[in-house]
Amino acid sequence: MAILIPDSALSDAEITLGEKKIIRKFQQSLNDECIIWFQPKLQNLRRPDLIIYLPETGLILYEIKDWSIDTIIEANIDFWRLKFNGKIENKTSPFKQVRSYFYNLSNNLRQKRILINTEGEHKGKIKLPIATAIAFPNITKREYQNRNLSTVIEEKYILFKEEIKDIGIKLGPKALIDKIKSHFDPWWPNDELNKDELDSLRGFLYPEITSKQKDSKGATKDIILDINQEQIAKKIGGGHKIVRGVAGSGKSLVLCAKARMLVQEHPSWNILLTCYNISLASQLKYYIKTFGISDDDSKDLTYKIHHQVEVMHFHKLAKSIFRQAKKEWPQFNDQQVRKTSRFKTLKEYEQEAELDEMQSALLGQELQNIAMTKNLRLYDAILIDESQDFHPSWLKALTLLLNGDTNFLLLAEDPNQKIYPRTFSYKNAGVDVIGGGKIYNLPISYRSTAEIVLSASRLINQSNWDAFCKKFISLNDDLAMKATKTGNLPVLKIQHDYDEICRFIAEDIKD
Description:
Structural class: alpha/beta
Helix content: 25-40%
């Protein structure tokens, strides 16, 4: 089955019956390596109905017209006169229309050096042939011939009603490829695009999945979401949702890509992007500014992101809320608490954990009180990175800052990276993520080697960790195996004395 992007295309409010029929036929009949893009935005806001990538065949653009033969009054190579509900309209010839998409696409792809042949017969040309065709889901070949329309658009560039019906029946996978190949003029043998080449093509069709970042030497490089990351970022709608993934799986990138999409989809929304630690907040600010910056919308998009999206770590947000409410930061007397009977039997590290739990709960409760008693500005969307380290009371406070009409709450988590052994329940925090279709998994680690991810996961699996983490690991035990890099197995050092552990870590960092 071919990959459909976005995979929500069939439920698009504006999709026509003909488009839906053809997409289903192609998706079910083409193999897993094929990609179908529904209405991707080309330069100058042009949107072909379909672009299909077929490995070793090429790229084809389809313009789909749901017209019946009786709709067509007159046709020439430039314009067609059509009758809809008794009203006559002039339309650009569908072939002229799809060819304009072709020139737009091919001219811009020539700027992608990675997609240009550097040797051989086709040196200097795009690495794969590109074709254009028309699909008439409601017009048969005989009807078309009887109206002498073949002189306007040659039949070889058209997919007719009976041919569409035959896809998956008489036109099996191989026969369908041959049929599509007949639209190419010319066609030449070509290799399947490698990952980097295909990513470059995907990033061109959807700039919002491309983050332009600088490496350590200052050179700009493209970081392009993989297909699963892209589908998740585009699919997530309203309500409370979770993006869950292993370390280095791109959770932060997906959150930033989604925030960027929300800015374009909802120009009036007030959006919060928050996380636990300060350094990640800086990284998120950088990421969100780098996504989807193209010549068409760079200045406008940068302005919108700056004015619509607040990016800050949670404690900075809390400080801002206390300042707005003219309240002091809640004071916690840890010396007093340490004197109580509750702490007498606890070991030092247990005391520290308990103090953190109490201090975090106090902060969250104070924020809830302010949210319930003061007129604070609400956020239309809240996106939370590192949600596994948020105290439930913090999450509850954040839900009180969320606009109930929009109710867009997105959390990114990796329980494997959970720092604090807190009693954790999304339900108690007022976060509604129980039920199907609310958790999206990112299983591939791009940062660590398979050996490191596997070893870390196995250590956690064997440890006496909390129920939240144990449940995650039991449900996702295979995630550790999916890494893009390999390397040496980690070296395991065992020290039985806590001070010795600390000394070893300190010395290792110094080294």
